[in-house]
Every structure is written in structure tokens, then in C-alpha cells.
Recover the amino acids of this structure.
């Protein structure tokens, strides 16, 4: 019985750490999927640089444990 309880607790902890919560930002359409271990940002925001020809900044940002490992946003 104790082994089943340990497995159940491990599954609950993994779910808490890995299941993301989507948050929509009010910057033009960015969606951030945030879990405790990682964060994925689907960026679609208005470009603050008014001299640029691009009206939006598009791309994806991936962070694991707070360290940015991938960023392909148009800057």
C-alpha cells in the first residue's frame, strides 16, 4: 500500500511541475505558457520602435529553470 501512495504523490508532484498555465498578455497577442520548471512565450506584440517597417514582433521564447535557451523573435 505504501508503494502505491508514493507513486501517487510522485504523479501529483510531476503534474504540478510540468502542466503549464496559459496567460494572455495585452501587448498585441502574446501568449505565455508558464509552469514551475519552464516557460514558453508565443510572442506577437506591437513593435515599440516606430522607425521600423515591421509593425509586430513575432517569434517564440523558451526558458527552462529561468534560463533562456531559445529565442527567435524578430528584433
Amino acid at each position: 500500500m505504501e508503494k502505491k501512495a508514493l507513486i501517487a504523490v510522485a504523479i501529483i508532484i510531476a503534474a504540478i511541475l510540468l502542466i503549464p498555465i496559459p496567460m494572455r498578455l495585452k501587448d498585441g497577442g502574446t501568449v505565455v505558457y508558464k509552469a514551475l520548471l519552464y516557460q514558453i512565450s508565443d510572442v506577437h506584440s506591437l513593435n515599440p520602435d516606430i522607425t521600423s517597417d515591421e509593425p509586430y514582433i513575432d517569434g517564440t521564447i523558451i526558458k527552462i529553470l529561468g534560463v533562456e535557451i531559445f529565442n527567435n523573435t524578430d528584433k
